[in-house]
Structures are given as structure tokens and as C-alpha cells.
Amino acid sequence: MPDPSGPEASWPAGRRRALDPDGIEWRRLDPKYLTLRLAGTAISATVWTALACAPLAAGALGLFTPPAWLAVGLPAAVAALALANLALVPRRVRAMAYAEREDDLLIRHGLLVRRVVVVPYGRMQYVDVSVGPIEGALGLATVKLHTAAPAGQSTVPIPGLPDAEAARLREQLSARGEARLAGL
């Protein structure tokens, strides 16, 4: 049953059915993934705001006199956009989930544009697990499904999984993919 506090709670019933098939039990990402995304977004916001302060710094150093809209307005606008982006991170993370079915894997994501990607096990070429330095410190991993897609996205990531779940999912998907390919 979908989580009533998740972003799908506000979806109209007709649209929810198309994006959330009946009988699907969505698995959410590890809550530590939210920490990772918040930290990354905060670092990015700080860097962009600092870069936007370059005209202000140049004016303070006497290199040139920037107009007020550039010296003050640009950093303020960048900081406001960064804070808005930071505020949306928890909802974006809550919108991400995956579900295993008998013949395929469903992955949903997106806040403004909601998407459900269906990956048939028979189309998977290989499953990759990666762990970055910050992910490793938090005990998280990313599972990447590489598919035989004729066009578009041929790599489908599932980030923010606990190490044990990533290993289990890799083995499960690999076994199901081999079984489907053997049946061809």
C-alpha cells in the first residue's frame, strides 16, 4: 500500500493508477540517502552562491564598480534558488522507489515529472554496483542496470540502497536476467 505521506498522496486517482499499478509494494531508499543528497545539494548551493558573489568581491577590491543588481541581486537570486532546491530534496528522495515483479523491475522517480521505468529482466545485460566515498561512509551503494535499449536511456540507476540490499538486488536481478535470457 502506498505511503500516505509520500508524494503520490497528492496524485489524482486516475493518474496514480497509471504510475502506480495495483498490487505493487514499493521499496523506498535508505533514509541515509536523504543525508547524502542534502549534503551534496548544500555544497553545490554554497559553491554557486560563492561564485555569484564574484562581482561583489571585485567591487570590494576596487577592480571595477559593478551595478547593484549584479553585486547584490545575483548572489541573492542564486541563494534563493539554492534554498528552494534544498527544500525540495526530501520530497525528491521520497518520490524514489523500486519494486520487483515476476518479469520486470519497476523504478519510479521524479517530483514535477513523475516517471515509472519498467525494466524487463530479459533486457538486462549486466548489473553494476558502485559505492562512492561518501556513500561508503554512510553504508550505501548504487545499483545500475545496463539494458539492451534500442534508444534512450540504457543505464537505469537505483541509488541510496544499503550495502546488503544492493548485493541482494544485484544477485537477484542477475539470476532473473540469466533465467529470462536462457528462455529465449
Throw out a few tags for this protein:
3-stranded antiparallel sheet; PH-domain like; 6 helices; single chain; 48% helix; 184 residues; alpha+beta
Could you please describe the fold and organization of this structure?
Keywords: Membrane, Transmembrane, Transmembrane helix. InterPro entries: YdbS-like_PH (IPR005182). Pfam families: bPH_2. With 184 residues, the chain is an alpha+beta fold. It has two domains: 60 residues; 86 residues, PH-domain like (Roll). It is built from six helices and seven strands. The strands form two sheets. It has a four-stranded antiparallel sheet with strand order 1-2-3-4. Helix 2 runs antiparallel to helix 4. It is elongated and about 70 Å long. The two termini are 34 Å apart. The mean pLDDT is 87.
Q: How far is it from the N-terminal to the C-terminal residue, by CA?
A: 34 Å
Give the H and E element order. Answer: HEHHHEEEEHEEH
Per CATH, the class of the largest domain reads Mainly Beta
- Which fold name is given in CATH as the topology of the largest domain? PH-domain like
Q: Can you give the helix content as a percent range?
A: 40-55%
Shape: elongated
Provide the structure class: alpha+beta
Average pLDDT confidence is 87
The CATH superfamily label of the largest domain reads Pleckstrin-homology domain (PH domain)/Phosphotyrosine-binding domain (PTB)
Low-confidence stretches: none
> Which strands sit side by side, in order, in the main sheet?
1-2-3-4
User: What's the total count of β strands?
Assistant: 7
